[in-house]
Amino acid sequence: MAAELDFSPPEVPEPTFLENVLRYGLFFGAIFQLICVLAIILPISKSHKTDSDSFEFKSSEVVKKPKVAAPQLSKKPKKETKKKR
């Protein structure tokens, strides 16, 4: 009875090129997702900016003016009509 048991490893075909691409693509995708999650959890402070850079950015914001809608000259008043039932 012990002679009937076969403990040799099963024959597994070698992965094809597309299977390798899929495996490594999923692997790198998982690493990319972990990096993105860590970037959200651990934000990097931007202390390397100088004060003059932040001053220039603020002054450019002040110079911007809100856009004013141009008056429409061809707008005609609408006539009100009552529907007959």
Automatic annotation (TrEMBL):
Keyword set, alphabetical order: Membrane, Transmembrane, Transmembrane helix
Compartments reported by the entry: Membrane
Membrane topology: Single-pass membrane protein
Keyword RNA-binding attached: no
Highest taxon in the source lineage: Eukaryota
Annotated TM spans: 24-44
PANTHER family: MANNOSIDASE, BETA A, LYSOSOMAL-LIKE, MANBAL PROTEIN (PTHR14409), PROTEIN MANBAL (PTHR14409:SF0)
Pfam families: UPF0239
Protein name: Uncharacterized protein
Coarse class of the protein's main subcellular location: membrane
GO cellular component: membrane
Family (UniProt): Belongs to the UPF0239 family.
Statement: the UniProt record of this protein carries the keyword Iron: no
